[in-house]
Amino acid sequence: MANFSNYTSSTVVSGTKSADYIYNGSYNVTINAGAGNDEIYSGGYATIDGGAGNDSIVNDGVNVSIDGGDGNDSIWGGDGDNSTITGGAGADTIYSGGLNNVITGGTGNDRITLSAVSNVVKYASGDGNDTIYGFNESSILTITGGSYSTQASGDDVIVKVGTGKIRLIGAKGKSLNINKTHRTKTITLTKGADTLSNNLLNVKITAGAGNDSIYNSAVKVTISGGEGNDSIQNSAENVTIYGGAGNDSIYNAQWGDNVTISGGKGDDRIINSGSNVTIDGGTDNDYISNGGDNVSINGGTGNDYIRNYGKFVTINGGAGADYIHSDGYDNTIAGGKGNDRTTLSATGNVVKYAAGDGNDTIYGFNESDILTITGGSYSTQASGDNVIVTVGKGKIVLVDAKGKSLNINKDKTTDVITLTKSADDLENYFRNVSITAGAGNDSIRNYGNNATILGDAGNDYIYNNGDYVTVNAGAGDDYIYNRGANTSISGGDGDDDIWSNGTNVSINGGAGNDHIENNASNVTINAGKGNDSLWGGAGNDTFIYKSGDGKDIIYGFDDNDLLKITGTFSASYDSSANEVAFKVGSTANAITLRNFTATSFNVNGTAYHVSGDKLVKG
Question: Three-class SS of residue 603?
């Protein structure tokens, strides 16, 4: 059985024609398992094709597409919502615990279990004899290719289609939706002060005038508060809320993901704890508090107060004198037109200013933050402990920023962070960032993808947890710890310590006596000049040595590894020490393999094995 583990986003994982074990721990991933009885475990947004064979597929993500392919497949959909599951040909077992899923058993006698509401099961004439557990009033059964009839059988309902049938377990006496589509129901309240608690799916609620109280716990709902000072509370996904005119209070709980909120006219109070939410305060002076991630906030017109605790949030204060306070990191903030105040209490934020926005004040701006300016040139000057950035007739006051290394960029797609020449400490969460540390013993911790890190001179500490990152530690005795995938690491001159747990990594130790240890797969290690100690990990590792590089020791060389040697070489085996020593050019013991597990040694693409005290081809 071949094993595949993936932690890289936006990639394709392909199995073999035999039985594979595939684990996916990232998002936006396509898995093509191929033929064979495969085991697939996946989370995040993914497209999964089990291929032919009796596959076992376990999914823990949302917005997932699963096709079991031919064979008797077992598909466990977990709690994933908004997913499509197709069993394919064969007697499949399918479990769906999420909302708003579309499930097709395919041909064969399939067993389908639903443990949540608002799911659609599709059946085509000729698909076989299927059994469905958990089918209720919120579920829909669609039938194509033939007419159908229903009859009760004990507590069950049997739906006959041609020579096949679907048994709905425990469905007798329920109002069943067969070959029906969801029609949006409308609930219209009175013009007075109404109170409504809704748990019906696919409902449109129109409150009308009056100070209304609306509580919603169902998905796919649209709520219009209308006129009046309304109180609207939501705890479900895929909901749209319009506050309407009046001073409204809108609360969206942490379960309220993928929600759109519009405050409308009036001084609204909007509190959000859900993720993937869009908020528009509308007109007048609004209070907006956000605790969710991946949220877009627009204060609209008026003097708004916006408090943010989430990360990966985009904030635009809109027109008016706004106050924005952000405790989250990796956010993008624009005050908009008017004299705005912004307070940053965390690192890694981008503040945007356009010519004509007004006179803004920013508190807490530091070396990890970026100020981007569009629409005009700028100049800076110190004023007491502050730095004033002048853009046309407007200005930005960076409070207590004097003496700091500031990142002010004009119309740049790649942000640049330049540290001082002393010992700096930086924690970065930005994507597409270039970091230059300068001289000094610096400490850099990076969590952003697509970053470039230059340690420069000094004994630097560099920690990377981002993918697609390039690290050049520069001169000095550096310590580098990498957890990112698809990363390139260069230690530079000096006796470096390099540790890596990321897949698809390239490591160059540079000059000096380096210690390089790899604990992941598909890594290329070029130790460079000096007497280096190297450790390979599981998977296909490649070690590169050039004549004159020094005397290197490689630990843990196995049958999957490749040793590339530039220059003439010979090799000997010491049985007492269980070591293989390579002489490269005139350098004896240029490379020593210790604690190896290999029975066949791949050197320059040619297989070697131990024969007596020598390493011979074959």
Answer: strand
Last residue of a domain, one of 148, 178, 208: 178
State if pTM tops 0.85. no
DSSP H or E segment with residue 206: strand 203-206
User: 401 and 362 in one domain?
Assistant: yes
* Residue at 65 is within a domain: yes
Which pLDDT does position 131 carry in this prediction?
A: 98
Cα-based distances in Å from 367 to 405, 427, 456, 464: 6, 10, 17, 18
Residues 6+ apart with CB under 8 A from 441: 423, 458, 459, 460, 461, 476
What's the token pair of residue 330?
Answer: 């990796």
**Partners of 29 in beta bridges:** 46
- Per-residue pLDDT at 411 exceeds 60: no
First to last CA, the chain: 26
Ramachandran angles phi, psi of 231, nearest 5°: -115, 115
CA angle, 443 as apex, 441 and 446 as ends, to 5°? 145
The residue whose two tokens read 């100020």 is: 371
Please write the tens of the pLDDT for every residue from 322-369. 999 999 888 999 999 999 999 999 888 899 999 999 999 999 998 888
DSSP strand pairing (314-316 vs 332-334): parallel
Residue 201 carries which DSSP code? S
- Picking from 37, 236, 240, 9, the residue whose alpha carbon sits closest to that of residue 225 is 240
Q: Give the model's pLDDT for residue 271.
A: 98
Q: What is the DSSP letter of 460?
A: -
Number of domains in the chain: 3
Same domain, 332 and 260: yes
In 3D, which of 319, 321, 313 has the Cα closest to residue 344?
A: 313
| Tokens representing residue 346 in the block | 């965390």
Cα separations (Å) of 576 from 556, 559, 591, 594, 612?
Answer: 17, 21, 18, 12, 12
- Residue 611: CB partners within 8 Å, gap ≥ 6? none
DSSP classification of residue 73: -
Pull the structure tokens for residue 414.
């790649």
What is the pLDDT at residue 540? Answer: 87
Tell me which amino acid residue 144 is: T
Question: What is the pLDDT, as a whole number, of residue 613?
Answer: 87
Q: Which of 461 and 137 is assigned the larger pLDDT?
A: 461
Spatial separation of the C-alpha atoms in residues 87 and 107, rounded to whole Å? 8
Among residues 410, 432, 459, the one where a domain terminates is 410
Say which CATH number the domain at 260 has.
Answer: 2.160.20.160
Beta-carbon contacts of 258 under 8 Å, excluding residues fewer than 6 positions away, are: 237, 238, 274, 276, 277
